[in-house]
Amino acid sequence: MVQHKSYTQTDGEKALAGFMVREMQALGLDAALTPVLGDRVNAIGRWTGTGGGKSLLFNGHLDTNPVSEGWTVDPWVGKVDDSFIYGIGVSNMKAGDAAYFCALRTLIEAGVKLKGDVVLTYVVGELQGGVGTAAFIDQGVRADYFINSEPTDLAALTMHAAAFVFTIELIGKTRHMSKREEAVDAIAAACDLIPRLNTMKFSGAGSPEHAGINRVHVGVVHGALGRDLQEWRPPQVADYVRLKGSGRYAPGQNRAGALADMEAVLSDLMQRFPGLEARLTAEENRLTMPAFEVPRESRIVQAINRAYRTVRDSEQPTGAITPPGFYGTDAGHLYERAGMEGIVCGPGGRYNTMPDERVDIADYLDMIRIYLLTILEICEVA
């Protein structure tokens, strides 16, 4: 899988989807490519049980981020040494994709028959807000339970935040630096604002655990003269700053409430900088990841906890674990859009989205074992 250059929104992701269909068909699954808006495709396969058991759907994405600077190994070879599997996307999230394929393959090759169906979904467009998973949900693909295999370092993630993207415009008043005291400095206001945004929590959290996955982050800052951000006149006080960032809020909170809390912060900013205007807008033109939550008493959570205990002889970290609790994942769509009950649990995470991206071999193999045992418990042996 790593040897496929499956950058998001390229022909490479389509080629990898085709590869996964052929691999699933070779195992005897009923597998096919299914359409996604924009001439893209998912790979969906089903191992049909004998009947009478619960069904389990595995979910992971094939599209990857681009290779960054700083790599010391070839990102496309799929290098394996004594400790790690390397490659772009191996942590996010081809190791998880491969782990559930190998778990089912192990059962099939051992001649195990299951009562319930196992559904393997390999989607595209997770990096565009989950358009691939939304597509197969709208096409009617469902199961009683799901496991999303995003990288959690094998922790059982029972809650993650919803995500939104925002823009803030700060409009001040320019003067020459000799008259700086008469100006309203948009850059100075931005320097005051950003730390306040980056440390804020939203109102209405259902518990300290819910509040623990609230976060705001400003990732883009542009400041200069005017909306065109003219940079050729640095002696002038900047009268315009544009900030872009992302927010995270927990189940039970909502975007409207989060934005209202941010508006209150901007109102305070305008009090501290008289004459400043501050405008907040949220991006609406793309699909975004909803929040996700599952009770710890759920059958799927208990099953994966027991499997972890069997494999590792220790208790599985479970809950709104961070940093994964700040992720947006396709589990949000499976939970909100499809009304399914599930868990987020996958290999990788420690070396995610960084040069020489890699996954511990021991974690990868243990994840296969944990998935295998969870399949046996949920779907039941015929």
| Proportion in helices | 25-40%
Oligomer: single chain
Low-confidence stretches are none
Q: Give the strand content.
A: 15-25%
**Main β-sheet description:** 6 strands, mixed
State the name of the first-level CATH class of the largest domain. Answer: Alpha Beta
Beta strands, count = 16
Q: Any guess at the CATH architecture of the largest domain?
A: 3-Layer(aba) Sandwich
In short:
Helix content is 31%, strand content 22%.
Structure in words:
- This protein has 382 residues and is an alpha/beta fold.
- The chain folds into two domains: 11-160 and 291-379, Aminopeptidase, CATH 3.40.630; 162-282, Alpha-Beta Plaits.
- It has helices spanning 11-27, 90-109, 131-138, 186-198, 208-211, 255-272, 299-312, 331-336, 361-379; strands at 30-36, 40-47, 56-61, 84-86, 118-123, 145-148, 156-157, 159-160, 162-171, 215-224, 240-249, 277-282, 292-293, 318-319, 341-344, 358-360.
- Helix 4 (186-198) crosses helix 6 (255-272) and helix 7 (299-312) crosses helix 9 (361-379).
- The longest helix has 20 residues, at 90-109.
Q: Could you name the key traits of this structure?
A:
Alpha-Beta Plaits, four-stranded antiparallel β-sheet, 2 domains, 382 residues, elongated, 31% helix, Aminopeptidase, alpha/beta, six-stranded mixed β-sheet, single chain
Topology:
Layout: H1 11-27, E1 30-36, E2 40-47, E3 56-61, E4 84-86, H2 90-109, E5 118-123, H3 131-138, E6 145-148, E7 156-157, E8 159-160, E9 162-171, H4 186-198, H5 208-211, E10 215-224, E11 240-249, H6 255-272, E12 277-282, E13 292-293, H7 299-312, E14 318-319, H8 331-336, E15 341-344, E16 358-360, H9 361-379
Parallel strand pairs: 3-5, 3-6, 6-15, 7-14
Antiparallel strand pairs: 1-2, 2-5, 4-16, 8-13, 9-11, 9-12, 10-11
